[in-house]
User: What shape does this take?
Amino acid sequence: MIDLLKTKIGRLRILAILEGISLLSLVCIAVPVKYWMGNPLFVRLLGPVHGTLFLLFLFNTLSVGVEQNWKFREITWKVILACFIPFGTFYIDKKILSKL
Assistant: This one.
């Protein structure tokens, strides 16, 4: 895991995993607690965290894509699309980012 911090692609992979985990936490923990127990605290806490990680992933994808000279039609658009599909960041990490 420490090796991932040494490269921009590694940091992008970490962001992908964190963004996916934040979405899982939001959907599987915070939203049920809000609607079943009437307590919106977790949604208020996790919502902005997930939003921030989402934007960081998006901007870092564009930054790494430009820096690494990714062909937009082959890699960049797939990675960007993944952050708009629920849990797509896990898939894109396994299928594309881990091989770069």
